């Protein structure tokens, strides 16, 4: 909470002018509109509007005649009451939002399937990430993906762990180029341990792709001007066609080899940059020299 009473009152929802006029009445006792304007420095016309607002909020009381004075309702009762009014207003807005949401949703229900429902365009990375996570959770049998940059989901894709526990079969084709990126390298071994089936594609995958139960799909496309668009496809026949393409590239891709597994390990960088000691270098030199002088050579 702010230490300054005026700032604290604004945190409770009062406007700056309301807070200052209210504090003037607290500190000076009952004041007329003219006196409140003199104390606060606000124009008299705006002070009367502020006083009326404070009256409406139940923070002050006053007479109705010309020149009448205004005084505060005990703050230990008025301020908690103000918060209660806010809670009641929020509850009312929540009720209206729920009712209005149901009414408007009923207007969106189509009488027949339309192209707009079959294919939707998602323009924001956040929208793509949220849709991908939801589709992972809704999948019941399979999740098949092309893995290439850019990456939208949260680091480690924690939603996938739940999908694996629920028995969803996950197959992923990775571009070899992404095995070292931060969105993949620290997590690949864990994903495999959870049951993900992995293959590596030596080359560039045509685009990002995720197919769910061979019924729905996300296809990420690069548009002219480097704009990114993701298509959400809710059509089993189209999803099956994309699945055929996935199967073809799956057959052309290679299983994750030992070298790639080692490369995906967090310790791989240290092992690759570790240099032999001076003693090891000397030993290696003696071995090479012995092989060079051997009669069989």
In words, what does this structure look like?
With 297 residues, this protein is an alpha+beta fold. It folds into 2 domains: 109 residues, Winged helix-like DNA-binding domain superfamily/Winged helix DNA-binding domain (Arc Repressor Mutant, subunit A), CATH 1.10.10; 154 residues, Endonuclease Chain A (Endonuclease, Chain A, 2-Layer Sandwich). The chain is 52% helix and 18% strand. The strands form 2 sheets. Strands 4-10-9-8-5-6-7-11 form an 8-stranded mixed beta sheet, with helices on both faces. The chain has a 3-stranded antiparallel beta sheet with strand order 1-3-2. The C terminus is likely disordered.
Number of strands: 11
Task: Please identify, by name, the CATH architecture of the largest domain.
Answer: 2-Layer Sandwich
Q: Widest sheet: strand order?
A: 4-10-9-8-5-6-7-11
Please give the CATH class of the largest domain. Alpha Beta
CATH third-tier fold name of the largest domain: Endonuclease, Chain A
Report how far the terminal alpha carbons are from each other: 85 Å
State the helical fraction.
40-55%
Beta content comes to 15-25%
Question: Rg from C-alpha positions?
Answer: 34 Å
Average the pLDDT over all residues and give the rounded result.
81
Class based on secondary structure composition and strand pairing:
alpha+beta
- CATH homologous superfamily of the largest domain? Endonuclease Chain A
Strand and helix order? HHEHHEEHHEHEHEHEEEEHEHHH
């Amino acid at each position: 909470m702010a230490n300054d009473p005026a700032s604290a009152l604004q945190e409770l929802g009062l406007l700056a002018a309301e807070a200052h006029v209210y504090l003037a009445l607290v500190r000076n006792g009952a004041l007329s509109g003219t006196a409140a304007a003199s104390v606060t420095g606000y124009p008299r016309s705006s002070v009367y509007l502020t006083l009326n607002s404070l009256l409406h909020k139940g923070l002050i009381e006053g007479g109705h005649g010309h020149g009448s004075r205004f005084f505060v309702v005990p703050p230990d009762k008025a301020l908690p009451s103000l918060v209660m009014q806010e809670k009641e207003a929020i509850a009312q807005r929540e009720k209206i939002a729920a009712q209005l949401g149901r009414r408007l949703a009923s207007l969106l229900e189509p009488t027949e399937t339309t192209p707009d429902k079959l294919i939707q365009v998602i323009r924001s990375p956040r929208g793509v990430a949220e849709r991908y996570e939801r589709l992972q959770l809704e999948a019941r049998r399979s999740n098949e993906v092309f893995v290439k940059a850019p990456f939208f989901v949260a680091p480690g894709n924690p939603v996938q762990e739940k999908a694996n526990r629920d028995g969803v079969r996950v197959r992923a084709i990775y571009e070899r180029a992404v095995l070292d990126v931060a969105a993949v390298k620290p997590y690949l071994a864990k994903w495999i341990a959870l049951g993900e089936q992995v293959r590596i594609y030596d080359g560039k995958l045509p685009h990002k792709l995720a197919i769910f139960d061979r019924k729905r799909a996300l296809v990420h496309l690069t548009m002219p001007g480097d704009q990114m668009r993701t298509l959400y496809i809710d059509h089993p026949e189209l999803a099956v066609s994309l699945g055929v393409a996935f199967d073809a590239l799956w057959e052309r891709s290679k299983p994750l080899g030992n070298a790639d597994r080692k490369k995906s390990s967090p310790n791989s960088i240290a092992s690759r940059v570790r240099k032999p000691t001076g003693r090891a270098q000397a030993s290696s030199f003696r071995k090479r020299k012995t092989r060079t002088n051997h009669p069989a050579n």
